[in-house]
């Protein structure tokens, strides 16, 4: 009554009048004015007449008995899937109290969905009979009555194969039909439990009455075992739902109820309306709920059974543990903790600085204590004065940051610790004044002990190099310190490659087998793998048809492009001329014309001259001029102005199809772009020396055209008996290119008045720069560790000598690849080579057997091994070697660890030498005197087979 009064007063203050009041309490209705009551209660005698029934959407509230009743009137719909769905959804049951009766209709809809019946398709006779029976049974719901008042509640979730149901007594229920997808019973039961938890949470939030913690009842022992078990790892479906249950409830809130006593089992199986009205189980719940908790059903033992064979439990791997003794070295923990070399040094530096500070405080305390004891006899006063003086001493100490000396000292301590861990035996031997064992991995480094740090010995005592570079500290590649140092160098050098990191490392440290350690580091570096990783490459398209027609005459399919400009003298001034290069797309031959300008008419005229000399063209390809470098901006801009339409119209009467490449697609013209670069690179430099006239440039272009067309199209064989390689001139002129231009021409001919000599000089210069590139070679002596210098005599004999003034012991070390050299005697002019039997011989011409790999050994000596031959089984390389008698040895008998293979290059000068070329094998070298070795019979120079005895 108070609530109704307060509510009417509050609304009236805002100008609102609440009307249509009704209640099951007669005193409340009497307190409300008659004009504000509901229509049915206005003229009602509240003292004697019964209270009316209120109706809303099929639900009736009998205010006299304060209970809900139902009056179901089903709409007339056809017996189709759509009609049945409309009828089922017309029943208004927000609290789910009619769920047992509605379930059979929902299951009928599920069967229709499973049979894939159409929405407006008539259902089968069997389903029609079931539907009629259900519609007739629904009328009995008029006898079903539920009290509105709720005083206590218990939540019972249950499920079956067809549906699952939860009921909170006298409050609400909820029913859901299982999906068409087959789901196991335990999963359906667990889902019903989750819905029960959500309903409980909602009721605690919505009901404005104090509620005790809920008790949840289920007839599924599987669900109870899932909820109780907190050790097993469940699969995702079960684990997610168990987490929801455990977040809202405790395992002690869940109880077991037998299926026969579980009222929530009724809506999971379905119940007729007549039976629902007569049964009190669904409304009142199991009878044991009225008893004390001690009289409730006992919990089954199955609730505590193991879940070992449950399919919802994940298989767990068995992990066996072993006892590991903890490393008692604090330095090891410190090294493992830090991932950067600099941070590790700073941490150790602070520790050492703290150690020094504590030691100073200790010494100061001893000194003060001695002084105070002599002056004061009372112990209390002694202690007081000591503490006072120590506080004063600490306050006067200056707090200094770390210095470079602190970091250097920390680095030394870290290296000492690492060496004690890895090279303890070597350190003990050196500390006793002994040599390192020959079986030690450090024996070849000739280690020494300097400032208690193990360093490399070697032969660089008198070198001007820094002391750390002459005597680098030795660090094991297996230590954590080596990894931190290599990582620090790699990052400081901008993620440099292996060789550069190794060079920086050797300035201060020496790590045996450092190459493998650096390679391992680079493979793990994420930045390097991102930078050097292979990018996705697009698969190249098929070649155009006009590139694959060898049965057509030369220049039938042609590509064209401009190059230049070149300054040409005309009268007293100069004009610009341009080269027009035509290349056969099939034979790769070229034809060069000179154009006066870059206008369209000049381009057409050059093309007409080309056709008159080379024959009819069927397809002509060119670009749009956007594929030139920035230095030739003028040429690019001019070509862009060419009238492509005008050119194409001029060529149409001759049945020539001109195809223009896409703009900014230089890769489409790679055929002629490569030829343009070959010609332009050399002509652009030699044509600037002196201005020439039109006649000279025309002749020079013809000479260049002849030279380029003389290049080989096929692979050149190393066999001297093979045929001459095929060139474009063979296909154009039916003969190979003529020899070099006749006569001898020098640079003075460039400035003579005789123009033909000027043209011949330019052609000679083009030929030289095109065919004979130069390389820098190093003139050096190769001194063996046994004291002999390698030499090649004029007759081709290879031997060792102690004469350091001999001209035959000077060699040109000419690089022909990465760490690959050709060894050529400067006096004899012969190349050093090694054949398949391991014998050294000399050759006038550069062959594949003349290639040697140059490697630096750990003791700074250099070894030279054959690039062509090695041991077939072990893969060991064959090396150049000189024995103690000064004789050259067979390569397969020389080991890189022996002194015979160790050479010390003594650089004399750097000079320019012609690059060795395998194309020079035009003639067979004349026979020479045999080479005498210390462990082999005579061997003829150039011979590659087994050695034979010399003829008598």
CATH topological fold name of the largest domain: Nucleotidyltransferase, domain 5
* Number of β-strand runs: 31
Number of helices: 28
> Cα-atom Rg, whole angstroms?
51 Å
Helicity range of the residues?
25-40%
Using the coordinates above, name the CATH class of the largest domain: Alpha Beta
What average pLDDT do the residues reach? Answer: 77
Net shape:
extended
Number of domains: 6
Low-confidence stretches: 626-636, 739-745, 770-776, 918-952
**Ends distance:** 144 Å
**CATH homologous superfamily of the largest domain, by name?**
Ribonuclease H-like superfamily/Ribonuclease H
Largest sheet: 7 strands, antiparallel
InterPro entries: Fibroblast_GF_fam, IL1/FGF, Integrase_cat-core, Integrase_H2C2, Retrotrans_Pao, RNaseH-like_sf, RNaseH_sf
Organism: Aldrovandia affinis
Family: Belongs to the heparin-binding growth factors family.
GO molecular function, one term: growth factor activity
Write a structural description:
Residues 379-398, 919-952 are annotated as: Disordered. Residues 351-378 form a coiled coil. This is Integrase catalytic domain-containing protein. One of its GO terms (biological process) is DNA integration. 35% of the residues lie in helices and 17% in strands. It has six domains: 2-51, no CATH class; 81-283 and 293-304, 2-Layer Sandwich (Nucleotidyltransferase, domain 5); 331-404, no CATH class; 419-531, Endonuclease III, domain 1 (Orthogonal Bundle); 558-769, Nucleotidyltransferase, domain 5 (2-Layer Sandwich), CATH 3.30.420.10; 774-939, Trefoil (Acidic Fibroblast Growth Factor, subunit A) (Trefoil), CATH 2.80.10. The radius of gyration is 51 Å and the shape is extended. It is an alpha+beta fold.
């Amino acid at each position: 009554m108070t609530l109704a009064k307060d509510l009417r007063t509050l609304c009236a203050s805002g100008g609102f009048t609440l009307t249509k009041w009704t209640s099951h309490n007669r005193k409340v209705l009497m307190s409300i004015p008659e004009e504000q009551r509901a229509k049915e209660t206005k003229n009602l005698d509240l003292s004697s007449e019964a209270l009316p029934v209120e109706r809303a959407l099929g639900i009736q509230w009998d205010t006299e008995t304060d209970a809900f009743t139902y009056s179901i009137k089903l709409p007339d719909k056809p017996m189709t899937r759509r009609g049945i769905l409309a009828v089922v959804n017309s029943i208004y049951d927000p609290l789910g109290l009619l769920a047992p009766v509605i379930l059979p209709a929902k299951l009928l809809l599920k069967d229709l969905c499973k049979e894939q019946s159409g929405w407006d398709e008539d259902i089968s006779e069997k389903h029609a009979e079931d539907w009629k029976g259900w519609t007739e049974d629904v009328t009995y719901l008029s006898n079903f009555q539920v009290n509105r008042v709720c005083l206590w509640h218990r939540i019972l979730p249950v499920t079956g194969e067809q549906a699952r149901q939860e009921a909170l007594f006298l409050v609400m229920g909820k029913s859901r039909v299982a999906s068409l997808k087959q789901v196991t019973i335990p999963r359906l039961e667990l889902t019903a439990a989750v819905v029960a938890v959500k309903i409980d949470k909602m009721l605690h939030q919505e009901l404005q009455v104090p509620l005790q913690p809920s008790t949840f009842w289920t007839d599924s022992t599987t669900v109870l075992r899932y909820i109780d078990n907190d050790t097993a790892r469940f699969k995702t479906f079960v684990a997610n739902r168990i987490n929801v249950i455990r977040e809202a409830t405790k395992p002690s809130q869940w109880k077991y109820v037998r299926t026969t006593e579980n009222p929530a089992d009724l809506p999971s199986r379905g119940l007729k309306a007549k039976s629902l009205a007569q049964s009190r189980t669904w409304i009142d719940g199991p009878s044991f709920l009225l008893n004390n908790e001690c009289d409730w059903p006992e919990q089954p033992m199955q609730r505590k059974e193991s879940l070992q064979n449950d399919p919802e439990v994940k298989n767990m791997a068995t992990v066996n543990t072993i006892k590991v003794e903890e490393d008692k070295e604090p330095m090891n923990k410190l090294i493992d903790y830090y991932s950067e070399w600099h941070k590790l040094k700073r941490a150790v530096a602070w520790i050492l600085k703290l150690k020094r500070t504590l030691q100073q405080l200790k010494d100061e305390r001893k000194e003060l204590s001695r002084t105070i004891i002599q002056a004061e006899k009372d112990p209390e006063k002694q202690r007081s004065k000591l503490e006072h003086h120590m506080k004063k001493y600490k306050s006067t100490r200056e707090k200094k940051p770390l210095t470079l000396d602190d970091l250097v000292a920390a680095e030394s301590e870290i290296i000492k610790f690492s060496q004690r861990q890895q090279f303890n035996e070597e350190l003990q031997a050196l500390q006793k004044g002994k040599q390192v064992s020959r079986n030690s991995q450090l024996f070849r480094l000739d280690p020494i002990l300097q400032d208690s740090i193990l360093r490399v010995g070697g032969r660089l005592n008198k070198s001007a190099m820094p002391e750390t570079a002459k005597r680098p500290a030795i660090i094991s590649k297996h230590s954590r310190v080596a990894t931190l140092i290599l990582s620090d160098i790699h990052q400081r050098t901008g993620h440099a490659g292996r060789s550069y990191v190794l060079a920086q490392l050797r300035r201060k440290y020496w790590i045996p087998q450092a190459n493998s350690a650096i390679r391992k580091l680079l493979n793990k570096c994420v930045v390097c793998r991102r930078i050097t990783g292979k990018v996705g490459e697009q698969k190249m398209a098929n070649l155009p048809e006009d590139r694959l027609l060898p049965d057509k005459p030369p220049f039938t399919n042609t590509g064209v492009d401009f190059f230049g400009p070149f300054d040409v003298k005309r009268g007293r001034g100069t004009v610009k001329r341009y080269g027009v290069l035509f290349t056969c797309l099939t034979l790769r031959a070229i034809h060069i014309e000179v154009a006066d300008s870059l206008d369209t008419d000049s381009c057409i005229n050059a093309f007409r001259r080309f056709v008159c000399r080379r024959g009819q063209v069927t397809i002509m390809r060119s670009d749009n001029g956007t594929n030139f470098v920035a230095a030739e901006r003028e040429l690019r801009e001019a070509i862009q102005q060419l009238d492509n339409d005008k050119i194409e119209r001029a060529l149409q009467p001759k049945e020539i199809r001109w195809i223009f490449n896409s703009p900014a697609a230089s890769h489409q013209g790679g055929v002629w772009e490569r030829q343009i670069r070959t010609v332009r690179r050399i002509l652009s430099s030699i044509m600037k020396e002196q201005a020439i006239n039109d006649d000279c440039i025309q002749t020079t272009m013809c000479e260049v055209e002849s030279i380029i067309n003389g290049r080989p199209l096929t692979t050149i064989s190393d066999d001297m008996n093979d045929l001459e390689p095929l060139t474009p001139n063979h296909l154009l002129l039916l003969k190979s290119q003529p020899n070099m231009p006749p006569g001898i021409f020098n640079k003075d001919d460039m400035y003579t008045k005789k123009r033909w000599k000027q043209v011949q000089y330019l052609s000679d210069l083009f030929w030289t720069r095109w065919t004979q590139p130069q390389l820098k070679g190093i003139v050096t002596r190769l001194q063996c560790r046994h004291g002999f210098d390698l030499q090649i005599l004029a007759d081709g004999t290879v031997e060792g000598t102690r004469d350091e003034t001999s001209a035959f012991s000077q060699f040109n070390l000419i690089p022909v690849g990465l760490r690959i050299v050709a060894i050529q005697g400067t006096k004899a002019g012969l190349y050093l080579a090694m054949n398949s039997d391991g014998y050294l011989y000399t050759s006038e011409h550069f062959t594949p057997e003349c290639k040697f790999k140059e490697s630096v050994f750990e003791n700074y000596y250099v070894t030279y091994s054959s690039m062509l031959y090695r041991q077939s089984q072990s893969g060991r390389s064959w090396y150049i070697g000189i024995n103690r008698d000064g004789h050259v040895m067979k390569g397969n008998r020389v080991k890189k660890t022996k002194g015979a293979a160790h050479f010390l290059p003594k650089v004399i000068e750097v000079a320019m030498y012609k690059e060795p070329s395998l194309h020079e094998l035009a003639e067979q070298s004349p026979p020479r005197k045999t080479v005498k070795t210390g462990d082999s019979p005579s061997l003829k120079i150039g011979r590659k087979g087994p050695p034979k005895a010399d003829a008598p």
